[in-house]
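WARN retry 2 of 3 for item q-0093 after timeout on previous attempt; input resubmitted unchanged.
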Amino acid sequence: LAMAPVKKTTAPAKKGKSTTVANPLFQSKAKSFRIGGDLRLKGRDLSRYVRWPRYVRIQRQKKILLQRLKVPPSIHQFSRTLDKNQASELFKLLVKYQPETKAAKETRLEGVAKATAAKETTTSGPPPATLKYGLKHVTTLIEQKKAKLVVIPHDVDPIELVLWLPALCRKMNIPFVIVKGKSRLGTLTHKKTCSVVCLTAVNKEDESKLKTITDNARAQFNDVVERKWGGGIMGLKTQAKLTKRAQQLEAELAQKLEAKL
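OK item q-0093 returned
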């Protein structure tokens, strides 16, 4: 038997690598991202590698500690604040009754002094309704039952300054609310921060609005006393570890029950 002739296949010729000639004007240089080197690419989050200032580290450690440790009810009540919509309505009302600034006061007193020097009669009516602020002043107004609405921020530091205010307001039957941000109250009173503000009187056109806010305050804060402890929230790793341990215990218990049967 004659074997069929085998066809010879020629292998394709290998293409030689095309050599690119480097331009002597623009030399290639590898980037170095080490200290003092090239700028890093945008979009990469490097916050974990930043050495933050001490006050930032303390803020963050305190926040974590307040989550981990058990917090008594008297402190835990400050974590329950007025919601966003109600808070915006409240601040719209409070902004109308901001106390006058130093410049406005100087201008007013200069006008009164000029009028007195010119022997003109000045009609000085009752003082306008304004926000009252300052811990001692507001406490006195609450004790005298002159305050119509008390506003306490949730982040006063140390918290002991205002810890007793909700109890005093309940005892004197004064409506109070807890809002987010002592700096927001500070802008109302032309200060950096403010521990507490209150309203003693409003104009006639705002009386219905004040009544609505005070009714909501009584329902949400005065009539609801916080009795539950806060905190005790573990980190993600600890939660995963506890869940795994609970699953193992359940599996062991199931095996024991099967062995008994």
